[in-house]
UniProtKB/TrEMBL annotation:
This is Thioredoxin domain-containing protein. The chain crosses the membrane at residues 16-35. Keywords: Disulfide bond, Membrane, Oxidoreductase, Redox-active center, Signal, Transmembrane, Transmembrane helix. May be required for disulfide bond formation in some proteins. SUPFAM superfamilies: Thioredoxin-like. Pfam families: Thioredoxin_4 (PF13462). It comes from the Bacteria. Residues 36-224 form the Thioredoxin domain. InterPro entries: Thioredoxin-like_fold (IPR012336), Thioredoxin-like_sf (IPR036249), Thioredoxin_domain (IPR013766). Belongs to the thioredoxin family. DsbA subfamily.
Length: 226
């Protein structure tokens, strides 16, 4: 389950709506997992590590101590349904491994409107409201990330409800530093050859065949072996 560039252009609106509805029911409709547990963990030792400078930038939003023995980097798109589905899992990892795991978030703007969603998140970060706004933007993604055209006005309203000073944020959203973050993150996305979201790197190695249960299991394994 992921949002890819190819799939985005190939799927028609009906298919996307059905997929989003199914995803919402599975993930948020009573705790029923929509993905089956992966039988095999990713053998990260067999996957070549990439240039670490492409994974973590000094400005990247992160959770957990910098010196944590395990680093999980997520390339995510605020408009991506799969990223929304994985967000509670990432939060669960944070709670289970508060000192052992550092989580770094990188922006991957594949969808229409995603660049502005990033500007919402970055202005929220300037106001120390990143986390509540991120949670609200993803939780209420079906309201604004519409496949027939994003409703960014609704996204801004959602952010305001989550605590964002809207007037200040709208004056700050064109801050050159935010444009720089967007440009650098997408340059790294292209350099890494990322084609879908979410894409995770665990201790510098790209994970494949990610499932909800599998992600937690792989992180736990990395912690136990760190």
């Amino acid at each position: 389950m992921s949002c890819s560039i190819e799939r985005k252009t190939q799927m028609n609106r009906r298919t996307l709506l059905i997929g989003a509805s199914t995803l919402g029911l599975a993930v948020f409709g009573g705790g029923v997992f929509f993905l089956t547990r992966r039988n095999q963990q990713v053998d990260t030792e067999t996957v070549a590590a990439v240039d670490p400078s492409l994974l973590v930038r000094s400005y990247s939003p992160s959770f957990g101590p910098d010196e944590a023995p395990v680093t999980l980097v997520e390339f995510f798109d605020p408009s991506c349904e799969a990223c929304r589905a994985f967000h509670p899992v990432v939060q669960k990892i944070r709670k289970q491994f508060p000192t052992q795991v550092r989580i770094v978030m990188r922006y991957t703007v594949f969808h229409e409107g995603s660049d502005e969603a990033v500007r919402i998140l970055e202005t929220a970060r300037m106001q120390d409201k990143f986390e509540p706004v991120l949670d609200a933007i993803l939780e209420q993604q079906p309201r604004w990330a519409l496949h027939d055209g994003p409703r960014m006005d609704i996204a801004w309203q959602i952010a305001e409800t989550a605590g964002l000073d809207l007037e200040k944020a709208k004056s700050d959203k064109q801050f050159p530093g935010i444009t720089g973050v967007l440009n650098q993150d997408m340059a790294d996305v292209n350099a890494l050859g990322i084609r879908q979201t979410p894409t995770f790197f665990l201790n510098g190695r790209q994970m494949s065949e990610i499932s909800i249960d599998g992600l937690i299991a792989d992180v736990r394994s990395a912690v136990e072996n760190s």
